[in-house]
Amino acid sequence: MSKVEFKAVGMKYHTLEGETEALKDLSFTIEDNQFVSLIGPSGCGKSTTLSLLAGLLSPTDGQVMIDSKEVDGINQRVAYMLQEDYLFPWRSILDNVLLGLEIRGELNDSSRKRARQLLADYGLGDFEDYYPTQLSGGMRQRVALARTLAIEPDILLLDEPFSALDYHTKLALEDEVAQILREEKKTVILVTHDIGEAIAMSDRVLVFSERPGEIKSDYKIDLTIDGEYSTFKAREATEFNRYFNSLWEELDIYV
């Protein structure tokens, strides 16, 4: 049974200026614990796809399914991590991580202990009482990840979460996050414009067409080396260049 399924999904936006068709006949499935990246030209509906899965939008046509049940409204089994960390500057690091639990009414001794453990696991155990302005960009994104995982979602949506970081921090955090999410056994969907990031982090890469978006290609990625996985090793693999060149050629026609 698929974890996620889009069945002939269409999405149209209506404004005073007219109608925009963002998605048309979008169909794909994602299995439990898969890490899947969505890439494609700007405006092709990738972020719309995440919003539909989270229940923030309802499709104009077709069905969005999680565990064979149609998504109907905000789905609390899905968590979103965005480009900006959106940490509240007046709350400590620990209090920022606890925010989602507070909103859900799930803050208790057990969930607080898990939140603290997440911070410790991500190298932030000594920074619980610090404030966001006292942390680097990479550290802030790790806090955002801890906040996202503290609510224990089944599915994690990542919308270009590393694009605002400098290149060195971005590469390091890609590796950390990919390792963490595999250990947590989460189903992950990443939207990115970075072909290398998509290949290094993912089990699959879905290529979207121009708007209205639909799936143009589906690449299965296997860059595990000697039974071990890391994004750094993935980038060094011979197959990495083959994947990269194929994806580059597909996207180059939209430039």
From TrEMBL:
UniProt keyword annotation of Nuclease present: no
Classification of source organism: Bacteria, Bacillati, Bacillota, Clostridia, Halanaerobiales
Domain ABC transporter: 4-237
Gene3D superfamilies reported for this sequence: P-loop containing nucleotide triphosphate hydrolases
UniProt protein name: NitT/TauT family transport system ATP-binding protein
Coiled coil spans: none
Record InterPro entries: AAA+_ATPase, ABC_transporter-like_ATP-bd, ABC_transporter-like_CS, ABC_transporter_ATP-bind, P-loop_NTPase
Cross-referenced CDD domains: ABC_NrtD_SsuB_transporters
Protein origin, superkingdom: Bacteria
GO function terms (MF aspect): ATP binding; ATP hydrolysis activity
Keyword ATP-binding: yes
Entries under PROSITE patterns matching the protein: ABC_TRANSPORTER_1, ABC_TRANSPORTER_2
Keyword annotations from UniProtKB, A to Z: ATP-binding, Nucleotide-binding, Transport
